[in-house]
Design a protein that fits this description.
The chain has helices at residues 2-67, 74-77, 85-102, 104-118, 121-138, 170-174, 211-219; strands at residues 147-152, 159-167, 180-186, 194-200, 204-206. The protein is α+β, with helices and mostly antiparallel strands. It has 3 domains: 1-92; 103-138, no CATH class; 147-219, Roll (SH3 type barrels), CATH 2.30.30. Strands 4-3-2-1-5 form a 5-stranded antiparallel beta sheet, with helices on one face. A hairpin with a 7-residue loop joins β3 (180-186) and β4. α1 packs across α3 and α3 packs across α4 (104-118). The termini are far apart.
């Protein structure tokens, strides 16, 4: 009888020890799994960005090398390849084109070329849209959007992010008896498409976030949220 109790007690001790060892290994496995996913979150964005930058540089190098005369190609001049040489040449070429376009002769040929392009029915529409987009995003004189706001859309209780382009002016402003804002509502994940709405200024909540942070917020579908994004006022 005593031997049976001792044996049973030994089995319980062994079972408890196995359960503890199992719990330790489970905790260790959970930590290793957490470290693994943390490593992915840390390295993946950097690795993908560097890979895309490398591929872009190589693509530019090949494109520029194909456009050069045979006697000036990279492999004809250099015994080895230099990644990024084509990108440097492209940047220098664009700077020279910009310098030429800023001069009197360059402006003349630019107006002449635009006049010819605007005479072509379909090409003129595409060129006009692309020109407005590039002038909006690359102009140093004006900013495309001034601030980020929240407003209730498409109905009360549902809030959406919008970008203020300017205060309403001209004929449209005369139709309202209160201060209105031109607000661009972007789509996700492509913020270059969307629609324009006219909203009373009192119905919007201005945010402290930068326009760039707001665009990132829209592109990511809410995954990349600025830490200092204010909450909606109650």
């Amino acid at each position: 009888m005593a031997d049976s109790k001792v044996e049973k007690r030994a089995l319980n001790i062994k079972r408890i020890r196995l359960e503890r060892e199992k719990a330790v290994f489970m905790k260790l496995g959970a930590k290793i799994r957490a470290y693994f996913f943390t490593g992915i979150l840390v390295t993946a964005p950097v690795a993908i960005t560097l890979y895309m930058a490398y591929k872009f540089i190589i693509w530019i190098d090949r494109l520029v090398n194909q456009l050069l005369p045979p006697q000036y190609k990279f492999d004809a001049i250099l015994p080895f390849t230099i990644p990024g040489l084509g990108l440097v040449i492209l940047v220098l070429a664009l700077i020279l084109v910009g310098m030429f376009a800023a001069g009197f002769l360059g402006k003349f040929f630019l107006r002449l070329g635009e006049w010819i392009v605007y005479k072509v029915p379909l090409i003129s529409s595409i060129y006009s849209v692309l020109k407005q987009i590039f002038e909006t995003f690359f102009s140093t004189k004006t900013q495309a959007f001034s601030k980020v706001v929240m407003l209730e859309y498409p109905r009360k209780g549902i809030w959406i992010l919008g970008f203020v382009s300017s205060e309403l002016k001209g004929e449209v402003k005369d139709k309202f008896d209160q201060e209105m804002l031109n607000i661009f509502i972007p789509t996700t994940p492509n913020p270059t498409s969307g629609f324009l709405i006219f909203v009373p200024k009192k119905d919007t909540i201005e945010l402290d976030m930068k326009v760039e942070d707001g665009i990132k917020f829209v592109i990511s579908g809410g995954l990349v949220e600025p830490e200092n994004m204010p909450r909606k006022k109650k």
